[in-house]
Amino acid sequence: MKDSRSSRSYAKSQPDFDYYVAKKYNSKSEKERDLYFQKLLEAFRTLSEEAPEVFDSIAPEMLQRSIWSWRGADPLLSKKFNNWLLADYQWTPFDEILPKESANHRPLQVPPLDPEHLNEVHHALIEALQDRFRGDPHRWDASRRDQFVILGMMATAGGYGVRQGKLIHSLGMGLAESGVRGANTVRAAKIALSRLAKPFGLQLFAPAVGNGPERVHMFSDEELAEVIARYVFNHDASILLPATNVPGV
């Protein structure tokens, strides 16, 4: 049976509508486009409130299709996006998983530390770290692995800090463990590392700020963070660290 006149008319109108929308978008001024985007975002917010089940079913696919249209086949971004949907959305803003063209991505080889270029205090601290993190990383106990991962993640973040939720997730602790137990694990690791640095008159970490998964942990000194970042990336245990950028290295 042939399609009815109304169905044929509807099918014909679809490309015309798409063309119309594209043409209207291209003809908008920057101010009009900003308003248009604002209203679209408001519409999505309303949909998420009025029909949460519908929004939950279409939003992830819409994001995925948008990323595909923008970046094409990008396995690394796809993996980051999937991880973000599963858990990372709790502590990682969406824009942080997007590729940054100007970013200095983690190089395959980070120049090792030259003891002659370190001051006496930093040199002593690195020796203490070498003593703490010696041996086969695969044979370390959990507390030592936790300390190395937290030290490395915070050092490579420079002066920006790392969210507590991200630290806990990178320790391999599940969502059910991300509350008090996860926070206590991070705190215990930081205390142990701080005690290691105390004899050299160094304060490794600045006071943490915030609460829960959004609590931010950071180094107290960016220069010291850079020194330790170079140390951890030349350590065999660097394989324990999540893929990241290396600021200033």
Shape: elongated
Structural class: mainly alpha
Proportion in helices: 55-70%
Oligomeric description of these chains: single chain
| Main sheet overview | 2 strands, antiparallel
Q: How many distinct folded domains?
A: 2
Straight-line N-to-C gap = 70 Å
Poorly predicted segments = 4-15, 17-22, 102-108, 245-249
- Please report which band the strand proportion falls in: under 5%, 5-15%, 15-25%, 25-35%, 35-45% or over 45%: under 5%
Total strand segments = 2
- What Rg do the Cα atoms give? 25 Å
Strand order of the largest sheet: 1-2
Number of helices: 9
Mean pLDDT: 79
SSE ordering: HHHHHHEHHEH
How would you describe the overall organization of this protein?
- The protein is an all-alpha fold and about 250 residues long.
- It has two domains: about 90 residues, no CATH class; about 130 residues, no CATH class.
- Helix content is about 55%, strand content about 0%.
- It contains nine helices and two strands, in the order ααααααβααβα.
- A two-stranded antiparallel sheet has the order 1-2.
- The C terminus is likely disordered.
In short:
The chain has 249 residues and is mostly helical. 57% of the residues lie in helices and 2% in strands.
Topology:
Blueprint (H helix, E strand, L loop, with lengths): L4 H23 L2 H21 L1 H20 L3 H12 L33 H13 L9 H15 L5 E2 H7 L9 H18 L18 E2 L4 H12 L16
Antiparallel strand pairs: 1-2
Helix pairs in contact: 2-3, 6-8, 6-9, 7-8
